Amino acid sequence: MEKRNNLTQGPIFSSLVKMALPIMGTSFMQMAYNLTDMIWIGFLGSKAVAAVGIAGFYAWMSFAFILIAKTGTEIKVSQATGAENETLAETYARSGFHIIIAIGLVYTLGLIIFKDALISFFNTNDLEVEALSKIYLVIIATGMTFSFANQVFTGIFNGRGDSRSPFAINAVGLVINIVLDPLLIMGIGPFPVMGVLGAAVATVLAQVVVFFIFVYSIRFKHSLFSHFSFFKSPDWSSIVTISKMGLPPAIQSGLFTFISMIIARLIAEFGPTPIAVQKVGSQIEALSWMTAGGFSVALGAFVGQNYGAKQYHRVLEGYKKAIQVALILGLANTALLFFGAKWLFAIFLREPLAISQGIDYLRILALSQLFMCIEITASGAFNGIGRTKPAAITSIIFNVLRIPLAYYLSEYTTLGLNGIWWAITISSVFKGVVIYLWFKVIVKTSPEFSVNS
């Protein structure tokens, strides 16, 4: 039976790395789901890629609703674990599951019922793209509750200091998706050619399998859940606590997605190719925020356990080391995206215009990678101490400013489409600077940190 990983003792840097590597691996596997789809769908042409990209915004938006349950559950499980209160940790874990199942079912129904209006929002003026988008959206919606629950399960394990189990479980799903994608999309062997529909079916089937492996592991393998029941009466106090913690980052994530959809409408004015460019480019750029995100989640679990155990000096030392790693990752990703733009983009799209626009996208976005890594890492520290509002406020303000800036730079300067990419980069720089300085203020003004700094 698995034991929790005690992050309140031992070397700090190695503890962070051991936690972060499987988390990054899990994140990359999630990205690999999308990249695998993109690679095979890319053979179907830019319209198919654009269709998946449009529907994908609603899969992306779903993460905002996931955060309502995941963030608070991960924080409270880690803090209860650090305080060695196993009963409380189990209560928060179960409450997180109750919340996410309810949210997942409601979100699924919403996507299916309002699919026409949701896809029409982008105003592509291309009936083929819109038809493909609706097909993809309906299919992935049927698997939303499973993928929602898988995210919360991952958060529960991370809060316990066990990031290896989610990595291993999600790896099974990735293998299933990799195998099914070419079979269903291209119609290899006895399978019919399903195109975009096949990509959606492969993803859903993989998530369903992952869900049941998580349930088995939670019920029979993990120490926290030796007597765990999914169906006890809801604990409303812990549900409220989790929801309050999760709401700020959920609002942040939801607004970020909505703002990105507004930006996508600006992009659509330049034709369907830029939509595909943005979809593929954002997947490539995910190399940065998923590596930083791994250390952010690891830092959140580390800070949460040590904050719960009142080991405030370890909280500060862990934060300093994580920021140093963020600096290295940011610079490395800047170099990769800037100098490797052409060959990275050519993996996914073949049209010369798409590759040319993709190179511009990656090189402009490359300049913001250092600041984005700092922002993401510092947000993990805020989450660990249970203060989820500062990162959310910072992100919301500067993400909202992207809309007028993108409109102005693309419409009233000679930058054109590239003005939209510059708006994203400029706002990312400001977010990184502000969130870093804000945490420094928290450290200087909080009594527990001033005594132990």
Residue fraction in strands: under 5%
Round the Cα radius of gyration to an integer and report it: 21 Å
Characterize the overall form: globular
User: Average pLDDT, to the nearest integer?
Assistant: 84
Instruction: Give the uncertain stretches in residue-range form.
Output: none
Number of helices: 18
Number of strands: 0
| Order of helix and strand elements from N to C terminus | HHHHHHHHHHHHHHHHHH
Structural class assignment: mainly alpha
Number of domains: 1
Q: Distance N terminus to C terminus? A: 38 Å
Assign a percent range to the helix content: over 70%
> Biggest sheet, in brief?
none
What can you tell me about this protein's structure?
- The chain has 453 residues and is mostly helical.
- It has one domain.
- The protein is 82% helix and 0% strand.
- It contains 18 helices and no strands.
- The chain has helices at residues 12-41, 46-82, 86-113, 115-120, 127-142, 144-159, 164-186, 196-220, 236-268, 272-308, 312-339, 341-346, 352-366, 369-384, 389-400, 402-411, 417-445, 447-452.
- The longest helix is centred in the first third of the chain and has 37 residues, at 46-82.
- The radius of gyration is 21 Å and the shape is globular.
- The mean pLDDT is 84.
Topology summary:
Layout: H1 12-41, H2 46-82, H3 86-113, H4 115-120, H5 127-142, H6 144-159, H7 164-186, H8 196-220, H9 236-268, H10 272-308, H11 312-339, H12 341-346, H13 352-366, H14 369-384, H15 389-400, H16 402-411, H17 417-445, H18 447-452
